[in-house]
Amino acid sequence: GAASVIANIFSLAGRRVFSHEFKSHGSSWPGFVTWDGRDPLGKLVESGEYLYTLRVDGALKVGKFVVVRKP
User: Fold this and answer.
1) What does the alpha-carbon distance between residue 13 and residue 24 come to, in Å, rounded to a whole number?
2) Nearest to 4 by CA among 21, 26, 16, 27
3) 28-42 pLDDT per residue, tens
4) What is the pLDDT of residue 28?
5) Minimal CA–CA distance to 56: which of 32, 38, 39, 34?
6) What is d(CA 55, CA 58) in angstroms, rounded to the nearest whole number?
7) Three-state DSSP state, 4
8) In degrees, to the nearest 5, what angle opens at C-alpha 47 toward C-alphas 42 and 50?
9) pTM for the complete prediction?
């Protein structure tokens, strides 16, 4: 059946730096969301911890990850 997926990424300060809604009309969602590391203005986000929310067909997953940029 169709899958509905909403992905959001937030800085620890609570600023949303990424949002994407995916609607699959095929058999299933591929199981991943890609993000280029840029905020809504096209600027690369800074190194640091970020939170994500992933809602798949109503089920919510929340997690944390780290972005590391070379100096």
Assistant:
1) 32
2) 21
3) 667 788 899 999 999
4) 67
5) 32
6) 6
7) strand
8) 85
9) 0.84
